[in-house]
Queue: 4 jobs
Job 1
Amino acid sequence: MVRLINGKNIDTVAGIAYRILRTQEIFTHIEEFNNPDLTPCIYAMWHANQFLVHGIKHRNKVNILISNSIDGEIVARTCEKWGFKVIRGSSNKKGAVASTFQMIEQLKEGNYVAIMVDGPSGPLHKVKNGAIKIAQMSGAPIVPSYWYSPQKTFVSLPSWDKMKTPLGFCNILNLYGEPVYVKPDATDEELIQIKEQIKSSLEKLEEEAPAKYEEALKNQLWKKKK
């Protein structure tokens, strides 16, 4: 079967994707709640919330891990057009090791890393080891991150991760949990506990999100930015 997307038209496809998403960004208004503003840090989120990176300050310092596939190439080129940094990785051991060290190097340079902790293909809401290992090796804290809007224009896509995205005018709130630190000499038992801590923090952010959004409305958070 001939692929509709290939090496010859991939830049064109990425350009079209960027223009469509950039148009949506004009109508998307993201504000932050309780971002600890730690530099460097690892922003950890569910795969469904990956677009929340657009609400993080200084996107030129945000590194996003993207696969080496053709589809990943489209995403990578689109992200670079937006001003994000991109780290390419793969599921094989060699590729995973290389991307891990790239992320550690970026953190040591004072930049951020964004990791979808249940990605790239699930299981849904199961925290994997990647972010924890990088935090352990780099000393950078993990900041649980979640985004929310009650508006009908904040929709879930029919994908395995139920990815959330704005579709039309949308006010969105980025919420952040308490930083999680991983000791270099953490035991296996402690690492398991940290996994549970990250999962619990993300679930707590989801639970608190509606009330925090109402608080932001009362404080006219979005109006103040206009």
Note: The CA atoms of residues 160 and 186 lie 32 Å apart.
Job 2
Amino acid sequence: MKKDIHPAEYREVAFKDMSNDEVFITRSTVNAKETIEIDGVTYPLVKLEITSSSHPFFTGKQKLVDTAGRVDKFMSRYGNRNKK
């Protein structure tokens, strides 16, 4: 590795998912205005709206909603092109 190319403020930071209050700690250089204390250690806090613990795709709760029959409309227009 080359010396002196990495940011000097690479430290442990707490990221908090605001939708389900889950907190995870990782190393980052992000600037944070708030702090949080976890197990007697104070970390810079970054608040997030959505993470992998609350995103529907990663939790398996994502659903395909076809309110206007778009899939059927697509298949009727373009689905049978190879059957001429």
Note: The helical segments are 56-59, 70-78.
Job 3
Amino acid sequence: MKKKNRTFLLVLLALVILIGGSAILYSRLSSGYSAGVLTGEAPEPSATDEELPQAPEFTVYDLEGNEVSLSDFLGKPVVLNFWASWCGPCKREMPDFDSAYQELGGEVHFLMVNVTDGGRETVETASELIDEEGYTFPVYYDSDLSASTAYGVYSLPTTYFIDSEGHAVARASGALDMETLQAGIDMITE
């Protein structure tokens, strides 16, 4: 009986350490970064440009393997979306992103960043989905996971709205409908 109690206590202690360590790791990865959270309605601006956080720099790759950095897109607002081909909510929002890109692609950069882990998600599986659906927005591959790490992405889809000066204005987790996507775009284009 004592052996079972000792084993139970060791397992319980291991779980407490694991959960506590995860919380500490999450807080360290996400410290210093906070953008407004976007809901169905565009919130009132609560910060001046000086108070808005600078969006973290990252490097991703295009289909040919060329490096592309966030700083390459300064000067125009950016819609930064993290997604994967196996993600149902990601696939549900893609038609709206493609429509917005077709309408606003000259005014707003759309960075559709595939979280390419090399296991469950590969360049091939992601590219196949884009080709099958006929999407026209540009797709970039986060094959070293530096972009998703820089932004603390822990669920897909996640979208960030970045103004033309590189300030992170808002973020949204989960699939966006067209109304919410437009609200985010309005926040970075007005």
Note: The longest strand covers residues 78-83.
Job 4
Amino acid sequence: MGTWRVYLSGEIHTDWRETIMEQSKSLGLPVEFSAPVTDHAASDDCGAVILGDESNKFWYDNKGAKVNAIRTRTLIEKADIVVVRFGDKYKQWNAAFDAGYASALGKSLIVLHDPSLTHPLKEVDAAALAVAEKPSQVVDILKYVIHGQLDR
């Protein structure tokens, strides 16, 4: 297989994406990463800015969610592997939706979260092929599945 396409979904308040991308690059892994828009304000405002303002918050958010879904759906559908990170600071309902969507499409799903979230995410974890606690474990999984070799 040539280049592996990995979609990095979920929590936007820490540097977990950068860690995975940098470690993968340093190992020379043939991986192309993609992600949702991680600029929180842009993600919230894109629908109303592009398509016209809304006075009702429901419709404001609805427009933004739909515009963002164009990117999210497209990139998840193209991905070979979907990694979904759940942080402990906020509830990432959109990340849970991405995990479910990826699972419904039969994508290889890796979930990344702290052990304290095991119970609330039990259904998401059950759909995953791997549940990691650290970004470095995701990199180790990528290294293993790409090269088929296990470092002991």
Note: The mean pLDDT is 95.
